[in-house]
Amino acid sequence: MSQWRSKAEWLDAYLAQLETQRKLSPHTLDAYGRDLRELLALSGETAWPKLGHQEVRRHTSKLHASGLDPRSIARKLSSWRGFFDWLGGETTLDANPVDGIRAPKRSKSLPRALSVDDAVRLVAPAPHHEGKAEPDELCSRAMFELLYSSGLRVSELTSLDTHYCKSGDGVAASLGWIDLASFEVIVTGKGSKMRKVPIGKAALVALSAWLAVRPPARDGSAALFLSSRGTRISPRVLQLRLKAHALATGIPANVHPHVLRHSFASHVLQSSGDLRAVQEMLGHSSITSTQVYTALDFQHLSRVYDQAHPRAKLK
Fold first, then answer.
1. pLDDT tens digits, residue range 2-15?
2. Is residue 164 annotated as a catalytic residue, yes or no?
3. 138 lies in a domain?
4. Active site residue: 59, 141, 153, 262, which one?
5. What 3-state DSSP class applies to 78?
6. What three-state secondary structure class fits 160?
7. In which domain, by residue range, is 287 found?
8. Which of 71, 190, 201, 236 is catalytic?
9. Is 0.85 surpassed by the pTM of this model?
10. Does the active-site annotation cover 218?
């Protein structure tokens, strides 16, 4: 392969390889592209083989000084490291200039979870709306109930179909669907791993109410949740609907879909203590990702102890 490509052309070739060989999703490719274009801008006129370890370290320090959080810096370093690993196999590169550079340490923040009372109040239907809700409201109610009932990621929920669809005639196979007869939802999570998660009774009722009024999708698809325009609902529309509903309900928190996922995990763990089951339902490949909820569970137990034990606090 020619070594006389411009710096931008090398980036384009790498992104094309990620798309065709690693089959990364468009969303992931966009993220890689942003990180690599930022490296292109930071490195200026310096050719890729001439970019040194100290320059990358200096770029990293600038990002940290600008206020970028350590998690984002770590993601950028990972993107850059992958690019130079690939470039080393395509052209002459003495060493990967990103090797050995670590992002600043980040404080371990716990995921936010609602209290049980707030979570139930958020997803429960308003009493005066029983039987009188508009289709959009029934759709939103079903989405909120399912998020809390099954702990789905927002991308998993918005990808759901009403039933399994086989691939063919230009239509992709379903990434996820509901099986009301088995009280389950089947989803495709990270790493293209499929899993089944139970659906609670309240979510089943909400889903049935929505399906009873769900109009045909504008594009003829089997998308489970539809926007007001009859198209598959987007993560952004879901986020806006949930935030507006939380404000209208008076929930004292910045509520987004992942808060309901955290609440699901925390509340199931509080009740069952079964970390492995929570890991499986969340679709975590490593138990380490799930163990963060044990800290939330301990916080809950600490509050109960402080409130209930007569010797918890000094008089």
1. 456 788 888 898 89
2. no
3. yes
4. 153
5. helix
6. strand
7. 116-306
8. 190
9. no
10. no
